[in-house]
Design brief:
Elements (H helix, E strand, L loop, with lengths): L1 H12 L1 H4 L5 H19 L9 H26 L2 E5 L6 H8 L36 E5 L5 E5 L3 H6 L3 H12 L3 E5 L8 H5 L3 E4 L24 H17 L3 E4 L1 H9 L4 E2 L2 H5 L19 E6 L4 H6 L3 E5 L5 E2 L6 E7 L4 E6 L6 E4 L10 H26 L1
Parallel strand pairs: 3-4, 3-5, 5-6, 6-13
Antiparallel strand pairs: 1-2, 7-10, 8-9, 8-11, 11-12, 12-13
Helix pairs in contact: 1-3, 3-5, 4-5, 9-10
């Protein structure tokens, strides 16, 4: 025990230098990891305790205990360990497996993921070979990164996060890492886009510049946010060129349509005379929550597949909408009054979808969750294809 304590001491003392966030949990996990490395790594060299069926049973039991405990821990740390062939003998197997998760630190202490494998030391001349049967492979699955531009230049300048945070939360819950993109980088944003795997174009209180789709402002369009438009266009140019998925929401859907040559209705209520409420101002007295309405999806469309049918109820918070769809954009969702609610790209196999409603606000809605999950799945597939292409 004294020898064990002395061997662990340097590692424990090193915590104060290595831990990027010195917290009690950081110290605990690193210390436990050091103990585990000694117990699990040295067990094959410490003689035999038990043999045959008894040894196999204890090893299996130890692995089971370790797996159960670590499954619980992974819910807190986000780590996904894989314990392979933990065959240490006797109590060392149980204890070793119990604390094996500590060998990999969780997200809260900021440690980088790594792949470790304990292997037998090279044999010296004449030494009897001893096969080590303690192997642990621990890793953190790398999440794909989804870029999200700020909604407006003003919100970015004020660091006003509540609105944009709902998009970040939706991406995070879908299993990806959201990356907030500045609207002030201009052409300098290109290197940042290259390191991302997909994009969400969020809503905005601004309207797309009318001259971009060959129209004049009839006094119904809100002032344009030119920095936001430039950023979205740079994102779309990159995404289409590199075959990266895009989910365009509300204003983002409208800008996607204009980017591809489509046009917009400048004000739904005044231009169409619809009685369907598409924003709070269309209801009197104005409600606290967004109004809702039904949407019909094109059969065999992606939206219909995700919805599990051809109809769904969505929220609504817009006064402009798609008029003429852009090139190779297919209208796959319309409200009961004929307003375009869903667009899907048909130009190639790349995943590009536009929705006029706000799925990021529908936190408990099954379709909303599936839309973000599908974006993340597409981003993973795109990233995997690029890795294969790079290796070939």
């Amino acid at each position: 025990m004294l020898r064990l304590g002395l061997s662990v001491a340097p590692t424990v003392l090193g915590l104060f230098h290595l831990s990027p966030r010195l917290t009690p949990w950081a110290i605990f996990w690193r210390a436990a990891g050091a103990v585990c490395r000694r117990l699990v790594g040295n067990c094959p060299r410490n003689g035999g305790v038990g043999a045959g069926a008894g040894r196999k049973a204890r090893a299996t039991g130890g692995a089971a205990v370790g797996r159960l405990v670590w499954d619980g821990l992974s819910g807190y740390t986000g780590w996904k360990p894989v314990l392979l062939g933990v065959g240490c003998r006797g109590w060392r197997a149980v204890l070793g497996c119990f604390v094996s998760g500590a060998m990999v630190q969780g997200n809260r202490i900021g440690a980088r993921s790594r792949l470790t494998e304990q292997r037998p030391r090279p044999r010296e001349a004449g030494q009897r070979r001893v096969e080590t049967d303690c192997v642990m492979i621990g890793f953190k699955t790398k999440r794909v990164k989804i870029g999200i531009p700020w909604r407006t230049s003003q919100e970015e300048a004020d660091k006003n996060r509540p609105r944009i945070r709902s998009y970040e939360d939706a991406v995070r819950k879908a299993g990806a890492e959201p990356v907030l993109l500045s609207l002030m980088e201009g052409a300098g944003i290109a290197p940042r886009l290259a390191g991302l795997d997909g994009f969400v174009l969020p809503g905005s209180p601004a309207d797309v510049e009318t001259t971009e789709y060959g129209a004049k402002n009839a006094g119904l369009s809100q002032p344009a946010d030119l920095a936001r438009e430039r950023t979205d266009r740079a994102i779309l140019e990159h995404a289409f060129a590199e075959k990266k998925p895009v989910l365009a929401i509300c204003y983002g859907c409208q800008l996607l349509n204009v980017y591809l040559g489509g046009t917009l209705i400048q004000d739904v209520r005044s231009e169409t005379g619809t009685s369907v409420a598409h924003r709070k101002k269309d209801v009197s007295p104005e409600p606290k929550d967004d109004p809702q309405h039904r949407v019909k999806f094109e059969a065999r469309s992606l939206l219909a597949r995700l919805a599990g049918g051809t109809e769904a109820v969505v929220n609504s918070s817009h006064h402009q909408a798609v008029k003429q769809p852009g090139r190779e954009l297919k209208v796959t969702g319309v409200s009961t009054d004929g307003i375009v609610e869903g667009l899907e790209w048909t130009g190639d196999a790349n995943w590009v979808m536009g929705v006029q409603w706000h799925p990021e606000r529908m936190k408990r809605d099954a379709l909303a969750k599936k839309i973000f999950a599908e974006l993340v799945t597409a981003a993973k597939a795109s990233k995997a294809n690029k890795m294969v292409t790079a290796k070939s």
